[in-house]
Amino acid sequence: MPISIARRHRLIGAALLSVAPWLSTAALAADVGQPAPAFELTDTTGKTVKLSDFKGKFVVLEWTNPSCPFVVKHYGSQNMQSLQKEATAKGVVWLSISSTARSHSEYLAPASLAQRYKEWGGAYSAMLMDDDGVVGKAYGARTTPHMYVIDPKGLLVYAGGIDDKRSANPADVKTATNFVRVALGEAMGGKPVSTPSAAPYGCSVKYALG
Length: 210
Fold this sequence. Notes:
This protein is α/β, with parallel strands linked by helices and about 210 residues long. It contains seven helices and ten strands. It has helices spanning about 5-10, 20-25, 70-75, 80-90, 110-120, 135-140, 180-190; strands spanning about 40-45, 50, 60-65, 95-100, 125-130, 145, 145-150, 155-160, 195-200, 205. Helix 1 (about 5-10) packs antiparallel against helix 3 (about 70-75). The longest helix has 11 residues, at about 110-120.
């Protein structure tokens, strides 16, 4: 489904980052170079998915919320879907995660969430529901999108923003350095990741209060 520029601009007002989620997750953030926190979640079909299921494979984690204009930027431009297809074609497991609280107005039930991304042509391996935010907080996920790359040994090799263009303008995708693509290319080639972390940008993750 095409995402209009008018809709994107209407959503910009909702994109301001709140301070609280950043503070609540900062102390819990997973560390690059250390084992990625284990987790078990259900996907939008109700299937249980464990990170340990993918031992020996590269895994990308993508925190997402379709109401966020920064997410709309990357899906509306087909940037996220292209990266998903490129990665999964090489055997990478791509797990998209929703940590939006059920009590929040932007929350979508599993079937509705899956339908939204189907309309956008999402090409992830699974969409996981983290309604209570436990996994998001374990990783220190602050924004949508917020990206993580895990290597076959289970070590976190990248954490941060998807690229270096901190805007909601789809036109910026063309000139951006995509940190996730670079990290995967280097790590899969047996090289150290040249940019292992970068500041995330986007809308605050809509965690449950308390």
